[in-house]
Design goal:
It is globular and about 65 Å long. Strand 1 and strand 2 form a beta hairpin. Helix 6 packs parallel to helix 15 and helix 8 packs across helix 11. It has about 450 residues and is an alpha+beta fold. The chain is about 50% helix and about 10% strand. Bound molecules: protoporphyrin IX containing FE.
């Protein structure tokens, strides 16, 4: 069996560009190396494989899933392991415990049972935030949209998954999460020499652990029956000693915090950026809204009528996938399309390249929501559209994130427009190891009326 071509790129270039311009770097890798390549960075025994072809994604995540089940096997050696713990869906290396926890947590995302309630919380909290925009900002004001929306997403998560818990200053919490999750990775790699950053990270870690510990303790002190993720987990772990129970639930919750701060927040930011870049599409969504809900607040029942909005949101995920790398570990030697995959290789699926592969996508560089009109995956091959992954480790929060976006975006568009500052050039920016956000931090807010 032959090895794939060697990656044409130095290790330094790989480290710097993949951190600084993650999406642009993927395009460069595809242009120079094609569908598959590998690299053995100097001094490392591990081989890194980079896959850009939709059918290779299918082999890795579906057909040969047993060989690529592990996401991060040497987790204890990974940056941030002490922040996340190793007993959660992302990082556990124990298949049985993953299966068990996944089943418990998935129950809390059952749309038939929970989404009507969740939608009321989402609408209520979004309305509260929009009222502060209405009173706090004038048309034309520079506006810290990242901070405002991150706080909202955190607030929604807390009040749906761990309902009825008040955490105090959410803006502080979201600022800490936003600072901590990206720096976990950066501090452990190229900035690890700066002890100031390390100290900050340790303080942030303690802050987040305290915050989540407070959620759990509050529920333990008031053990009335709730129907949310926290009560499901407390019930499942009831046989464990208290300390262990808290540690395990904390580990799950921290990954949820990270999931939301990295993914939905990226999706909402890129959506607002793409709306501002495509005013005629924004107008079409607005007209759809006027026709269906008019001036009243949207509800869960309205969501199926937001048809063009749903195409638009899917196209944002195609062009700016919040998780731009899907990472796996090859447990055994394998073969993908005739190429040898060595045992213990690190596998990197370049999601942005898969979403633009020219054999599968027409005009891949054009932003065109209507490609989702006739195909749920935007074209005919499901594994060419994998913003939430595919196979047994696919995202558990997908439907919840769709629910949030189909309520928050209409509510913003009913009252406001957001515009980038004149002359700003927006590129992708790394958030956590795998997240992709627009480089812009402030937008200009305009009131509609
Ligand atoms: C725009 C929103 C989101 C995107 C694009 C997204 C994307 C992803 C992706 C690509 C994966 C990895 C799949 C793989 O490795 O094969 C994943 C896994 C996961 N996501 Fe999401 N996610 C989103 C929202 C959420 C939310 C709101 C939650 C809720 C807490 C969540 C929780 C998780 C968890 C726990 C996993 C690990 C599942 C497992 O390994 O069994 N995600 N997500």
């Amino acid at each position: 069996m032959k090895m794939p071509p060697k990656m044409k790129c130095s290790t330094l270039h790989l480290m710097l560009e993949s951190l600084n311009k993650p999406i642009e770097f993927q395009t460069e890798v595809f242009k120079k190396n094609g569908d598959i390549c590998y690299k053995q960075p100097l001094g490392l025994l591990t081989n890194m494989y980079f896959l850009s072809h939709p059918l290779y994604a299918k082999v890795m995540l579906e057909d040969s899933k047993k060989n690529y089940w592990y996401r991060h096997p040497p987790y204890e050696k990974m940056p941030g392991s002490d922040l996340f713990g190793d007993e959660n869906l992302f990082t556990t290396t124990d298949y049985k415990s993953w299966q068990h926890d996944r089943k418990v947590i998935t129950n809390s995302f059952d749309s038939g049972v929970h989404f009507l309630d969740y939608s009321k919380t989402i609408v209520h909290l979004t309305q509260k935030l929009l009222d502060t925009w209405e009173n706090g900002y004038k048309s034309g004001d520079f506006f810290p949209f990242r901070e405002e929306l991150d706080s909202l997403l955190l607030d929604i998560m807390i009040n749906t998954f761990y309902s009825k818990v008040t955490l105090g200053n959410l803006s502080d919490a979201s600022k800490t999460c936003r600072r901590t999750f990206p720096s976990v990775y950066k501090t452990a790699t190229h900035t690890s020499f700066f002890s100031l950053k390390k100290r900050q990270l340790e303080n942030d870690r303690a802050y987040i652990h305290n915050l989540i510990g407070k959620c759990i303790q509050e529920r333990l002190d008031h053990p009335e029956e709730y129907d949310d993720v926290l009560s499901h987990l407390l019930h499942e772990y009831s046989a464990l000693p208290k300390e262990e129970k808290i540690a395990r639930i904390k580990s799950h919750f921290i990954t949820f915090f990270a999931a939301v701060m990295v993914t939905t927040s990226s999706w909402i930011e890129w959506t607002l950026v793409e709306l501002s870049r495509n005013p005629e599409m924004e107008q079409k969504i607005y007209e759809e809204l006027e026709k269906t809900v008019g001036n009243r607040t949207p509800t869960y029942q309205d969501i199926p009528s937001f048809v063009y909005l749903s195409y638009f949101l899917k196209e944002v995920l195609r062009t700016h996938p919040p998780i731009h790398l899907t990472i796996r570990h090859a447990l055994n030697e394998d073969e993908i399309n005739g190429y040898r995959i060595k045992k213990d290789a690190q596998m990197y699926l370049l999601v942005s390249n898969i979403h633009r592969h020219p054999e599968f996508w027409k005009n891949p560089d054009t932003f065109d929501p209507l490609r989702f009109k006739d195909h749920p995956f935007g074209q005919e091959t499901p594994s060419a559209y994998v913003p939430f992954g595919t196979g047994e480790r696919t995202c558990i929060g997908r439907d919840f994130a769709f629910l949030e976006m189909h309520l928050i975006i209409p509510m913003i568009l009913q009252k406001f427009r957001l515009r980038p500052p004149p002359g700003s050039k927006i590129t992708s920016q790394l958030s956590l190891a795998l997240g992709n956000r627009p480089s812009i931090n402030h937008m200009i807010l305009e009131h509609l009326y």
